[in-house]
Design a protein that fits this description.
Elements: H1 14-19, E1 23-28, H2 29-34, E2 48-51, H3 53-60, E3 82-87
Antiparallel strand pairs: 1-2, 1-3
Length: 91
């Protein structure tokens, strides 16, 4: 049975994610395809990167929707085939 004493908050905008203490990570599909396991770890291209939520809010606005938002370019290759993941705050 669900705990009804917990307060539910709609996380539908970038501003609400910031207020809730969430973080955003992204993964680039182009960099992931170029990830070669035969290379030493220091020479492999990273496919994951952390998004600066405050900078994203400054650019797109606090009321910008999180679900269905436009892709964020990869800082490694500049590609736009990226996926965004929400990381809950640590307790």
């Amino acid at each position: 049975m669900p705990d009804v004493t917990q307060k539910r908050v709609a996380l539908n905008s970038l501003g609400m994610l910031l207020v809730g203490g969430y973080a955003l990570w992204s993964s680039c599909q182009d960099c992931a395809e170029a990830y070669r396991k035969d290379l030493p770890p220091g020479l492999r291209r990273r496919a994951e990167f952390k998004l600066d939520l405050r900078a994203l809010i400054a650019r797109r606005g606090p009321d910008s929707p999180f679900v269905g938002m436009a892709p964020v370019p990869c800082p490694g290759c500049g590609g736009r085939r990226t996926s965004i993941f929400m990381i809950p705050p640590s307790k």
